[in-house]
Amino acid sequence: MNSIVNQDSQITVGLDIGSKKIKCAIGQVQDNQKRVNLLGFSEIESSGIKKGTIINRDELIDKIEQVINNAELMADIKVTGLTLSITGEHIKCINTQAAISLNYTNGISNGSREKIINKNDILQVLNSSQSISLPIDRDILHTIPQEYSVDTLEEIKNPLGMTGRRLESKVHLITAATAAMNNFVSCVEELGLSVEGLVFQPIASSLSTLKKDEMELGITLVDLGYTTTNIAVYHKGSIRHSGIIPIGSKSITNDIAVMLQIGLEESEKIKIKYASALASMSSPELNINISNIGDDDKRSISENEISKYVEARMQEIFQMVIQEISRADVKDPLTYGIVLTGGGASLRNLIPLLEKSLGVKVRLGKPTKIDGAKDIADGPSYATSMGLLLWSLYDIDYSHLQNNQDQGFIRIIKKIRDTIENMF
Asked: What is the band of 39 on the pLDDT scale with cuts at 50, 70, 90?
């Protein structure tokens, strides 16, 4: 297979492994380094994974190989490495902070009262922020700087070049089960590919859908997946909280199947075609014909009756979402409310339900900064895969950056310094 681009062109590849769908996107970074052209895209039904955990490795590897091959054919490019999404109940987040004395180096005073902050100081304080006690079976997935303080000056985005005696950093740490991360990476590596990044799903979705003003004044991204719901809360330009609820849109499919005593496949079709998240906006006159399991008898149920169950389940899910948001250390109201991504975001009348019951602004999160995605991958279910294409451009994860220190401090600190200015 021949590449259709020059060797100097930067190719970026994202692989989003979900419990319902697996998506692979191939893009080319534009000259201005801010946007990506979509060259190839493919999605197939998922297999071998449930709630972010691998349950059949061979099945999953086969599916990954298929979806990558299909995307390669469309792009006419051979993939060698990619960025991979990850989710699951094993992922946990905490906010932590650390401080260093600026007029001491390796415990020895340099004799000056104040010191000009350089890149090494920033790297040192960020490294200290990772010094937390973790169980032996867990590792840090992301270390994302939130803000800095220099002496009594707070909420500093970039302390480089400032003077002071004490530098403090606040960071958002996301940890994950080591085995879970290793297992996903090994599935990809078995196909002869390298994993260039591992990204928590809602952070990838945020990259492709959120705007700078939204992150500054406050917003929550809710990625409503098939078996999990992922959350990321942003305020004052940075992530303040992230989390996972182990329930997704599949619960609606299960509810319909149990209520009507039908198979999951038929239940999923009914959900997509007829279900409304707000029962009052569904028709009591429109009857849905269904078949009993094991016989040919036909019966019917109204769209409104189905939607009552759907509304109750969505109310339950978003009560858990609100509880998760309340754990964020944000005192001010989140001005921009909620952005919905994921396959479950397409449920009919979900936005009216949430705006009515929660009293906040809600919008669908559609990927931006990706050219060529229109009519191919421009809906909320593609937010993660499109965000993965942008990760190499806007990666502000210190735990990833520190692994590349041999490539030079200047490049690393520039990445950290450009967090929000370049990210959104």
From this structure: very high
DSSP letter, residue 422: H
| Cα gap 134→129, rounded to integer Å | 13
Q: What is the pLDDT of residues 149-181, one digit of tens each?
A: 999 899 999 899 999 999 999 999 999 999 999
By the 10 Å C-beta count (0-12 exposed, 13-18 middle, 19+ buried), 5 is classed as middle
Vertex 173 angle, CA 170 and 178, to 5°: 160
Look at residue 319 and tell me if it is in a domain. Answer: no
User: Does residue 197 form part of some domain?
Assistant: no
Nearest to 397 by CA among 149, 128, 172: 172
What confidence tens digit (pLDDT) does each residue in 248-271 have?
999 999 999 998 888 888 899 999
Side chain identity at 86, as an amino acid letter?
I
Domain that holds residue 304: 250-311
Q: How many CA atoms lie within 13 A of 114 on its CB side?
A: 7
What is the tally of structural domains in the chain?
2
In a domain, 168, yes or no: yes
Helix 303-326 / helix 250-260 crossing angle, nearest 10 deg: 140
Secondary structure letter of residue 402 according to DSSP: G
pTM for this entry: 0.87
Q: Which two tokens stand for residue 257?
A: 């199947």
How far is residue 385 from each of residues 24, 143, 148, 379, measured CA to CA in Å? 7, 21, 31, 11
> What's the CATH code of the domain at 139?
3.30.1490.110
